Every structure is written in structure tokens, then in C-alpha cells.
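Sequence only, no structure available. Ideas?
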Amino acid sequence: MSNVVRLIPPIHELLQSKTLKHLVDEHNLNEPFVKRVIQQQTDQTRKDILSKELTFESREEVRDYILSNTKDSIESYMSNQIEPVINATGTVLHTNLGRARLSEAAIQRVVEVARHYSTLEYNKQTGDRGSRHDLVEQYIKDLTGAEAAIVVNNNAASVYMVLSAFSKGGEVIVSRGELVEIGGSFRVSSIMEESGATLKEVGTTNKTHLYDYEQAINEHTSMMMKVHTSNFHMIGFTKQVERTDLVKLAREHDVLTYEDLGSGMVYDLTEHGIGQEPLVRDIIESGIDLVSFSGDKLLGGPQVGVIAGKKEYINQLKKHQLARVLRVDKMTYAALEETLKQWIFINQNKNIPTLRDILLTREELKIRVKRFIERYLTYDDTSLVLNEKILSSKIGGGTLPEINLDSYGVTINSEQYTSKELKDLLRKMNPPIITRIEDEQVLMDFRTISENEEDIVLKKLVEIK
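Reply:
I predicted one. C-alpha cells follow.
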């Protein structure tokens, strides 16, 4: 083995190779970075030789092996770790794929603000320092009917901030049936514990009565918290306390009320026969003190947590130390501002991708699918078989889990590839096309494929031989 180890060329010799020089010029790389990668690959090669996992016959063979691995390592490092994908799963708010897509107007605002200096914390009227908390507050107030609002970096942060600010060292009463677990194994009860609040569970998993809350109130009670169970749906022998009744009870005992809404619906989907999700405005009108929701779910904006409600409580949150810890950046504010403005001023059905995709009818999608298959059949030497398919879509993102949207798409079959192989092949394309498998068939749901993405999908399918 020691003889083989001696075949490893020195670092300075490897640095002079044409392969690396071309790579350095192509990506404008600096020498210390390249040298570090070569050293890593050389060390690994030495270990593999000594452990008898590798062996070589010549110096040239070792050199080519190290250079090849160095090139692959650098190209992998240089590639984007977050990249666009085509979502053909039919899940509109796919958490793994980034949830809500921004509107074109919001994207342009992000680009504009990122390119220039901005009035993030500057009052152009007075020339004095401004507050980022003021940037979108009026829009949130107009949209929800709240007295005031503050934005933090996600809705879990909203929950943590509200509990830390108003219930640290105190007791928070929550229905046992509302102690949900959200994405990534984060539990509401765990967030409450981290905030310093003491959880006081009442009721049972399926039934909680108003007297359960009333009997739990004591001198340590600081808050009654309601958690909207947006990521699961319970049916059968169930009972929940009405929000207005909870607010009335809390006022009688001078206790704060807070609802973690999660999904943040500002448009009434029930008018289209979709679910029974409460509107943020309705929750505010119920008299609840504070409500929080996500920005990248039904609002169709960037990832933020919005806390809206009574001005006296929002003002306390703005002064809290966590307001700085959990604040969002200028590009997020730009995207959120434009999204909120579109809900208020513009025909949102056409401009907010999330709402547009949810409201697409099966008939509209069927027209697109037929046209897509016809276009595919015009190509010669294609290897796939595409057929129309009636499908069912999900909204996703822990939103309206009980709702299935009537959808339409295509099945893709191949004599050469199994369904899993075909799904993997599509996933590894550039851009990746993310599909799903049902009944051993690869499915593409056109609900989440934009019309301007159809040409890309068509081209990639034609390339498969």
C-alpha cells in the first residue's frame, strides 16, 4: 500500500493541470479554495488506498482520479442548493417545495428593493429614522379589520412571541383537542414550554366545553388560547367552544384571548364551496384580542408570521426584545407589501397564484391537458404514452386537509422505465419535475403546473427516449 501512496502527485502539480485551470477560469475561482478542495480529495484518496478500498497502477491513474473528484466536488459546491422546480403533484401549498408562489408583481418588488437602497427604516417625509413595523401595518389593518399588527419571521415565531410577552410565568388554558403538531415535528405544547408559559389542558381530545375553561381559571391564568386545527380535521362525536363565548368568558375574568389561526384566509373560499375555514376578519370581529397566521399559506405571500389585534397588545409586542430577534428583512417586506396591496386593490383571482390555482376548475384543466397531449403527439420518435386522467388535488401546507379539489392531469407510462424509475428521471432533470405515483402510474396534475411551464415540461418529456 505504501508504494501506491507514493504515486499520489504533490498538490502544486495537481494545481497546474489543464483540467483545473479550465475550471478556475470558467467559474473565476480563487486558488485557496481550489487548493483546499484538492487537499481534501488527496487526503481521502490516501485514506482509501491505505484501507485497501482503492488501488492504482500508475501515477497518471491516481492523478486523473483525484482531478476528476476535485472537478465533481467543485461543480457540486458551485451548483445552487435551492433551485426552481416544476410542481406537478397537484398540492398547491407544498411545504417541501416552498409553499406559496409569489405573484409577478411581488417578485418585481423584491428585485427592485434588493437592487437598491430602501426606506426600510427611514422616514422620507421627515428625514428621520423610521420603523419597519410601520411598512405594512396599514394594509394588514385594512384587510383584517384589526386595530394594529406586527410581522415576524413565521407563524411559529408569532406563537412564541405572544406567549413570551404575555404569559411567561403564567398559565395558558388550551383545549386538549387543539394541541396540534405542525410541520417538522414542532408541537404547540413544546413552543409554549419554551416561551416560559405553563400549559393548562382542558377538555378531552374530541370534546371541550365552556365550563372546562371556566373551571380552569385561577389567579395564575394569563391567557386563553385557541389553536385552529387547520392541519387535520376531526369528525364524529366532537364539540368545541365557540370563539365568541370564549371571548366573553375571558373578559369577565380579565384574561387575554389569542388564536393561532395558521392558514390566514382573507378571501372567502366557502363562496366557491371550498371548506369552512374562518376569515381573519371574522375572528377579529369576534372580539378576540390577538390572532396570528402565516404569510405563505392562503395569503399567498412570503414566509412571515402576522400578528393582528388590539392596539394596546400589538404596541407591547413592538417594544418587546423579541421584536428585533424575530424581525423580517427588506425583501420579505417588499413581497408582503405587494401581496397585501393586491388583495386590497386588484382582482386577486388573476394575480395571486395560490388563490388562482385553488379556484381552477376541472373543466379548465381538462382543456389544457387535451391541448398538451395533442402537442406531444406531434413529435416524432417519442417513447412515452400520455393519457388524460381525472385527479384529486390537495391545498396542502396544513390547510383545509379535509378538502379534495376536483382536478385533471395526465398519466405517463413507459415500456423502458418502471413508474419509480420514470419519476426519478423527471426529478433529476433541469429543472426538476416533481410528480406523484398512483396505481403504478406516474401522474402530473396540471393544477400546479403554470401555463408558462407547459413548454418546459413538454420539451423534457420529448427528451426521454
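The chain has a mean pLDDT of 91.
Hope that gets you unstuck.
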